[in-house]
Amino acid sequence: EAVRWLAHNPGPSYLRLGKAGEPRLHTTPGSATGPIRVRAGAPDARVALAATGSVLSVALEAARIIEELGFSVPVFSCSR
Predict the structure, then answer these.
(1) Is pTM beyond 0.85 here?
(2) Is the pLDDT of residue 50 over 60?
C-alpha cells in the first residue's frame, strides 16, 4: 500500500521497512489522511501522545504507565 501511494504522489519521499519483526500496532490503512487514533484515552484528556514507526510502541507503553498514575491519554499514529 505504501509503495502504491509513493508511486502516485510524486515528490521527495522516504519509506522505511521494519526488519526486526516489529508488531502490527493498528490495522488502519496507511493511506489515512491524518493521525490514526490507536488508543482512546479519556474523552476530556488535555494531552495526547503522537508517534510514528517503531516509536509508536514506546508511546503506547508510556500511555500505559501514565494510566497507572490515574490519567488516561490518547495515542495517535502519525504516518504522514
Answers:
(1) no
(2) yes
| Contact between 48 and 76 (Cβ < 8 Å) | yes
- One DSSP character per residue, 17-70 reads ---S-PPP---S-TT-SS-EEEE---TT-S--EEE-TTHHHHHHHHHHHHHHTT
Cell of 24: 502490527
Report which residue type is found at 24: R
> Measured between alpha carbons, how far is 6 from 1 in angstroms, rounded to an integer?
9
Contacts of 45 (CB under 8 A, 6+ apart): 71, 72, 73, 74
